[in-house]
Queue: 2 jobs
Job 1
Amino acid sequence: MHELSIAHNLVGIIEQEMSRHNVNKLIRVKVKFGRISAIVPEALQTAFEVMTRDTLMQGAELEIEEIPLVAACRECRKEFSPEGDLLIMTCPYCSAEFGHEIISGKELYIDELEAE
Ligand SMILES: [Zn+2]
């Protein structure tokens, strides 16, 4: 389950941020992720809850927002947002199927962090 290791990293980063800003209670954290990072939000939610139990982050609200996938076609260089199966991403303009460049949708990052 790769959500476990993601939650682990997430908790580590939040801890660092909190001590850097001298805050003691995490209220809310917002994470953005791309479709290609293959995260199951529910699984990440659960992993986060388990890992923050009995810490300063306990009970904090975890918001997870998906970033749409954007690819640039290898043939015509137009940008499009692939739907469905990611193994074959067909360009809607010229029907090229392979070798597109992923411009956005691989990311995973903390977008907002609220603590006191
Ligand atoms: Zn194309």
Job 2
Amino acid sequence: MNLAVSADGKTSDVAGLPSGWTSRADHDRLLDLRATAGALLVGRRTLVADCMTLTCPGREIQPLRCVVAGSGEVPEYHPLFERAGGAIHWLVTGEPPSLVLRFPAEVTVHRGTLADFLTTIKTQLGVDHVHCEGGGTLIRMLAEMDAIDELHLTLAGHTLFGGQEAPTPTGSPSDYLPKSLEFRISRFEASPGTGECFMSYRRHAQ
Ligand SMILES: NC(=O)c1ccc[n+]([C@@H]2O[C@H](COP(=O)([O-])OP(=O)(O)OC[C@H]3O[C@@H](n4cnc5c(N)ncnc54)[C@H](OP(=O)(O)O)[C@@H]3O)[C@@H](O)[C@H]2O)c1
């Protein structure tokens, strides 16, 4: 997974400010990370807030574009459906399975749990490396499943969001995770010119 966090540990402000508050170098790193993935995974709220197309410039074979939604709500217009890219897979974890979802483009709809979806991505769609770009609610679900192997963070020292309710890398401030997960730092690259620091961590299971 890959996220940008402010100096006070927030991923957005209380109003849900979309992406675009970090440097060009951060965006380039995001694209480099996308290029290594067989599938990109985002929560529906991030897809909408950040107007994501989930594409990878210059890559002949595009990663699958996977969206995790709870409800049956589909945006009427969204650039994801307009821009050519990898096949779109849309998970709905809630809603009655009989509800018919209408999309303005070809989309494969999956119903069930996030765990089932990850299994489908690996076993049926043949993807070993899924790259998640948030948001915090989805990352919390993945952390609760202990499904995160590698974590890339851009610490944006130039921004303080403040606000008790502003989201963190594991979503809205709430209860602790059921257990701590240990990660070890594998990369630390400070960029004083941009006021940012790029870090990577690998899961270290006991
Ligand atoms: N700084 C960064 O790097 C970064 C990265 C990503 C996002 N963000 C910001 O984070 C915000 C969005 O993050 P978010 O945490 O609100 O949402 P999110 O993680 O992007 O989306 C979570 C999605 O999970 C779905 N869902 C499925 N099962 C669920 C369940 N059991 N419980 C709850 N949700 C479930 C919800 O669907 P329904 O909507 O259908 O209920 C929801 O859309 C935006 O402001 C975005 O700009 C920042």
